[in-house]
């Protein structure tokens, strides 16, 4: 065949491929989904901020500080009821649901955990929780939102890479929620998959880039906790690395281990009357969270962002704040209402570091940053994610080695004390429920 005809034939074929709608349709849907994650994440963040400001405004009067004793339990009850009746599987952080969906092979089982209906429910009920004073965050829920959008992309776009798309949506959610693109990628590799999946590289990177661009366009460029420039300047400062690593890791292991252990007992207790008993539990947890909030002067309500940012800027927190915030966050989680633990964990870690810094006479800002890294690494048992996310949120490049060391020490300490990572332990509950439902359906059909 002449060279001219061969080139002409290849050119015609390439034009057909590039002009084929069937070829571009899944790509366009995927790009739209990734961009939508960024837009929705920014909208979610603004709604969450409005909810917290609304709660603070209502409870700021002379005698209004007692209103949480009414508002918080009622808000917890409403959120728990709606989650159980209208938005099942919206409870808790949302990260365990995304992890479980990646392990499930049946599309119907995945849709029960990740769907556009759950996107609406997760955002709505997290905002209700924050408007009620719950000690929860929006970052974990954003992971379930992102994964749900990407699973819908797989369905609408006719794409077979459901597991990879869930991974990409989760990474995009974290990246857009914290404005931390590197942390989103590391989180996808270390926490969501626990294994390196080279086939998902392009999906994860593209999703993070597009969602990040959308968030950047709407919210601008910023560091979550501003910019810090502190580094160890003395032997005492270096001692913080060891203390915050071991202490933060042990505290994180206690939180995650107790959550997994008590969670089993709560599920057994609620089994005979799940709706009634879970609403009762939510009311009781809400009442205690309200009492803790009042005793702390309102500092434990909400995400704890303001307190953590203040500590990173060098303003010391009350010595017992980290214990009050840990208990408020733990009860909010055990209540079963939708809401994440990312932001409250960072607040607890900053409070722990602030206390250690005051006791040791070291830099409060450095101690808060190291406390966040140690405690967060202890809770999630993902040291690379902890290191990268703290570094990106604070911009403290002068303390790269200390942050890295604290994250690793916190992880090792936590693994010694609590062998099962929190999110993966919680994901087994959703996997087991899906298997039971599948078997019950097969038995009924046979």
TrEMBL record:
It comes from the Bacteria. It is a multi-pass membrane protein. It is found in: Membrane. The chain crosses the membrane at residues 28-45, 65-87, 114-136, 165-189, 201-220, 240-260, 281-306, 326-352, 364-391, 397-418. GO terms for cellular component: chloride channel complex. Keywords: Chloride, Chloride channel, Ion channel, Ion transport, Membrane, Transmembrane, Transmembrane helix, Transport. GO terms for molecular function: chloride channel activity. InterPro entries: Cl-channel_core, ClC, ClC-type_chloride_channel. Gene3D superfamilies: Clc chloride channel. It holds the Pfam family Voltage_CLC. Its main location: membrane. This is H+/Cl- antiporter ClcA. It comes from Rhizobium aethiopicum.
């Amino acid at each position: 065949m002449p060279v001219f005809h061969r080139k002409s034939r290849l050119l015609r074929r390439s034009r057909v491929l590039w002009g084929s709608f069937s070829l571009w349709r899944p790509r366009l849907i995927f790009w739209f989904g990734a961009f939508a994650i960024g837009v929705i994440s920014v909208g979610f963040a603004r709604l969450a901020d409005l909810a917290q400001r609304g709660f603070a405004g209502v409870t700021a009067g002379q005698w209004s500080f007692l209103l949480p004793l009414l508002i918080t339990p009622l808000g917890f009850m409403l959120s728990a009821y709606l989650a159980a009746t209208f938005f099942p599987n919206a409870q808790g952080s949302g990260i365990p649901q995304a992890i479980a969906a990646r392990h499930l092979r049946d599309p119907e089982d995945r849709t029960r955990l990740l769907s556009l209906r759950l996107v609406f429910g997760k955002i709505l009920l997290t905002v209700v929780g924050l408007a009620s004073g719950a000690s929860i965050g929006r970052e974990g829920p954003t992971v379930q939102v992102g994964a749900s959008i990407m699973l819908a992309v797989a369905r609408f776009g006719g794409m077979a890479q459901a597991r990879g798309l869930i991974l990409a949506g989760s990474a995009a959610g974290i990246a857009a929620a914290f404005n931390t693109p590197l942390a989103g990628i590391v989180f996808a590799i270390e926490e969501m998959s626990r294994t390196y999946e080279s086939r998902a590289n392009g999906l994860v990177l593209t999703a993070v880039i597009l969602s990040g661009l959308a968030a950047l366009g709407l919210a601008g460029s910023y560091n979550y906790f501003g910019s810090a420039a502190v580094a160890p300047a003395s032997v005492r400062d270096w001692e913080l690395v060891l203390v915050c690593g071991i202490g933060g890791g042990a505290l994180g292991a206690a939180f995650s281990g107790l959550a997994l252990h008590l969670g089993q007992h709560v599920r057994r207790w609620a089994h005979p009357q799940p709706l009634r008993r879970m609403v009762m539990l939510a009311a009781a947890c809400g009442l205690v969270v309200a009492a803790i909030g009042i005793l702390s002067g309102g500092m434990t309500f909400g995400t704890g962002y303001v307190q953590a940012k203040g500590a990173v800027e060098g303003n010391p927190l009350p010595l017992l704040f980290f214990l009050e915030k840990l208990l408020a966050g733990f009860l909010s989680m055990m209540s079963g209402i939708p809401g994440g633990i990312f932001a409250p964990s960072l607040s607890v870690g900053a409070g722990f570091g602030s206390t250690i810094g005051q006791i040791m006479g070291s830099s409060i800002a450095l101690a808060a940053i190291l406390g966040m890294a140690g405690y967060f690494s202890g809770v999630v048992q993902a040291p690379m994610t902890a290191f990268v996310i703290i570094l990106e949120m604070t911009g403290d490049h002068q303390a790269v080695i200390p942050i890295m060391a604290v994250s690793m020490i916190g992880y090792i300490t936590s693994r010694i004390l609590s062998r099962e990572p929190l999110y993966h332990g919680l994901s087994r509950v959703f996997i087991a429920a899906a298997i039971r439902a599948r078997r019950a359906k097969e038995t009924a059909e046979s």
